[in-house]
Amino acid sequence: MSTQPKRARIQDEFSEQDETAEKKEKDGVSSLMEDFNIQDDEKQRTGQPDDSAPLDAAKGKERFLQRSQSRKEAKEKTKLTLNDTGETSNYMYKLGQKIAKFGKEKNSKQIKQQAKDMCALAEEYLKLTETSAEGWYFVKACCLFNAALRRYQKIQWDIKDQENTTGSQETYIKKRLQVIETEFLKKVPSNPKVSNMSTSESAIKFRSLINEVREYETNTINHIHENVMKIDLSGTADMSEDAEIQTIEESNIFYNTVTDKIKGFHNSVIEDCMKVLGVPQCRYAILGHGSLARKEATAWSDLEFSVLYDPTEKSPEHVEDIKAYFRVLAHYIHIKILNLAETLPYCL
């Protein structure tokens, strides 16, 4: 078994692939040049007229070589540009492929391996936060750790963990989620913050709030189905006119109430974030979009929102500070929602 680190081996494999591709490209160019020469020699031997002057053929070869070189340079430039983002290291790319390769039907061994790879990729994103203030790295690490947490929990629910490692993995992930929030708040521009509530306590609080909304939804829908949407079996087997009117009225009440409860939930998340970050130094409005704006959202719907702020009488420097604040706030809200452990990563 090789003692070379796994990450280094993967990088070596990619380097070998690049060298092989480059050799094939060179061989292709040489082969094509030989074909040009063979065709020219054949025409001279048989006395066939040349379709183009020798000078044109030479120019054609030159243009071909130039295009090949341009493609190669463009490829190298693209590779450097992608690597500069910090998200396309060979190791991270390989982990992403492994995470995404399993379909929806996975056995316990595959689930555990996928969770392990998610944790490894999350750790890579956390490493990027050490040299970058980019908030998305924290968000992606948080998403991956929570997705891994749900998979370890699923293993516990489905089978008895023979290796007795699932519990320790859950503990490890919860500690890393706390690290994410702590380090994220340290990165707040020019004013590091600290939360008085632990990440686990916050997740429990908001999970309880959203479950209250879900309980209301379930009970109300069951009530409407069982007690309001009554079928008139004596005639057309349709609802009576009175039942239709009552169904519409109670459905309107239901959707209005659910919308208010969901807005209350999101307001609670935002208020908790602002207690830590401080309030913005301007007038502002946070707008809900999509199903929430249409009053069609449920407690399982995603959240789409935007922020409006008033830059009146603010200096350009102050406006930039306001923008930076709301970017941090948006990332912090995202992290809070992700810690409900209900978000599916993009790749799955």
UniProtKB/TrEMBL annotation:
Region (Disordered): 1-83
Membrane spanning residue stretches: none
Biased segments, Basic and acidic residues type: 58-79
MF term (GO), any: [protein-PII] uridylyltransferase activity
Family matches, as InterPro entries: GlnD_Uridyltrans_N, NT_sf
Residues annotated as domain Protein-PII uridylyltransferase N-terminal: 262-332
Name of the protein in its database record: Protein-PII uridylyltransferase N-terminal domain-containing protein
